[in-house]
């Protein structure tokens, strides 16, 4: 005769095996859903002002303030395994020393499919500054809306939903009066 403990062990092993197989099937099934969301991102204005960073109070740096218009339909990214989307707008440019930079200037978390229709007219949420102190002689920047799909079970997927058609140059520094 089997003891109660061995029967409990057999039942729990069977249940955990079934759950693991189910989770693996859920994870693999998300690769069947392919979505290609489309959007439009345009930069309406950029202003560059001098300022002091919080960390380095004695160092003058240029800060860029970017106003952008963003429209995107990200509803195709939602399926039954999508927990949330992490969206961010990044600026990709090359500074005067030839170093390529990618700076996140805005982000948002979308938790529901109903909120996945974006229409945003905003400006950068985070400080956009050049570490070499000046945007002078820096190359023009491409602005991109990127997303990260966070599933309940499975691998994270990344993608790009919108990009500016042409690179946008940085204007001359404006002095504060």
Description:
There is one protein chain. With 177 residues, the protein is mainly β. Helices cover 15% and strands 45% of the residues. The chain is built from 1 helix and 8 strands; from the N terminus they run αββββββββ.
In short:
Helices cover 15% and strands 45% of the residues. The chain has one helix and eight strands, in the order αββββββββ. The protein has one helix at 4-29; strands spanning 38-52, 60-73, 82-94, 100-110, 117-123, 128-129, 142-151, 157-163.
From the structure above, extract its key features.
177 residues, mainly beta, four-stranded antiparallel sheet, 8 strands, 15% helix
Structural class: mainly beta
Q: Provide mean pLDDT, rounded.
A: 88
Q: Calculate the terminal CA-CA distance, rounded to whole Å.
A: 91 Å
Major sheet attributes: 4 strands, antiparallel
Question: What overall geometry do the principal axes of the alpha carbons give?
Answer: elongated
